[in-house]
Amino acid sequence: MSQVETDQYHPTLLAALHARTYREAIERLARYKKLCSAEEFRITQKGDEILVEVSWPFAGEEPAPALLIDAVFALVTELGRRGTKRRLNPKRIELTRPAEPENRFEQYFGCPVKYCTTRDALIFALLTWSFPSSRTTMNSCKCSRHSSNKN
């Protein structure tokens, strides 16, 4: 995802990138997935943490492929990094599968990864969720500059 240029993004990702906050961006993505995809995002606040869990309701009892989980978690993280222009890292990742010999998750995501858990979840600190979008910051600067020119 970090190698893909924004002119190649699906319109849904472009809409998410234009959200006011990281939270709003992920909520937009979740709303799209609910309407047009086989995936569902569950976003839950527990104390000072936000959990992002993904499920595939039409898969029945079959577990989601590990590659699909990895891709969704990378998408959610990279969307935050590009949208906020910060090296945004989750607090931790929980995966139901066992650890792999060549684990690059901690390096890419910049957080601890727990294996053999009861859920696949991407966990963020609540504070991260309110980071403003870089586009919002740019727009507010433009607006304040224009309003100060009118005086």
Descriptive account of the structure:
With 151 residues, the chain is an alpha+beta fold. It has one domain (6-142). It has helices spanning 11-17, 22-36, 66-84, 105-109, 126-129, 134-149, and strands spanning 40-46, 49-55, 92-94, 113-114, 121-125. A five-stranded mixed beta sheet has the order 1-2-5-3-4. Helix 1 (11-17) runs antiparallel to helix 2 (22-36). Mean pLDDT is 79; it is low at 136-151.
Chain-wise SSE layout:
Blueprint lengths: L10 H7 L4 H15 L3 E7 L2 E7 L10 H19 L7 E3 L10 H5 L3 E2 L6 E5 H4 L4 H16 L2
Helix pairs in contact: 1-2
Provide a short characterization of the protein structure.
With 151 residues, the protein is an alpha+beta fold.
Radius of gyration: 17 Å
- General shape: globular
Fraction of residues in H or I helices: 40-55%
How are helices and strands ordered from N to C? HHEEHEHEEHH
The pLDDT mean sits at 79
Largest sheet entry: 5 strands, mixed
- Count helical runs: 6
How many strands appear in the DSSP assignment?
5
